[in-house]
Amino acid sequence: MVWHFVACREIAHDADGSVTLRQLVHAILPAPGESYPCIRERLALYALLTNGRGRHEIALEPTRFERGQEISVLKTGARTVDLGSDPLAVIGMPMPLRNVIFQEAGQYTFHLICDGKAIAEEKLLLKEPT
Amino acid sequence: MTPVRNLDPIEFDLLEGQARPAGLSQAVMPVTALPLVEFDLASSRAITALAITLEMKPTADPARVALDVLSLIDELQRYDRRLGGEGIHWDRSRSNAESGGTVRIVLTPNAPEGAEERMAKIAEFVTGPQREGSATHDKQAESILRFEAVLIRIAA
User: Fold this and answer.
1) ipTM of this predicted complex?
2) Is B13 in contact with A99 (CB distance < 8 Å)?
3) Number of CB pairs < 8 Å for A and B?
4) What are the chain B neighbours of A94 within 8 Å (beta carbons)?
């Protein structure tokens, strides 16, 4: 079960094993005077999970809406994660992203895929350039 | 708080091994961070109220008792406003009549800011010398045998 799935600029890892999410985000747009397509070289997603155990395949699938249709932008390769043996444990899953390309303005959705099934989503609004 | 076990970072490069396309703009993520909006939930859960116990004279006329109690509450309302408050209201659910002619009335402040200090002054006022001997007090004393006031903490 995913309790939180949020996008932020970056995730800092503290010495005690905790993490700090820096600058939660929702809206993204090209730098002033620039236009689409644009790229975020660094972005991050963080998921907080419980009720899971054992090894699972985790992937991401960003989509965007175009004329009312949700279109898959890409599906990443899967990564294997081990959630341990305690289903009551609260597991944090930091996911740094590199080179996220946005082709045009509109609503994008990042789906968190576990063993081929979408278990959470985070929406980002790509705004018109200024 | 339940400890969180953070997994090692799971990095995704969304270029997935492809060459970076040319001509991409930089994306920005503007966020306006407002000043901190702090909530102290410990202090907001309880407020200071006033519990007044009035013992009626067994021989008092019930109609007279009703008027004297109303007059006392009205007097305390005005006193709270003189102290800078916004008056007090009768907390019906926490008030009760006991056998033997005793009634316990709980009064809560309309303005919680500074209420503890004002309620303490009102408690002193109910039984204190500045009120004793006044015409209002003497009138109320015709039906009320004993005035008592204590501060209590109640859930907001």
Assistant:
1) 0.90
2) yes
3) 115
4) 6-7, 9-10
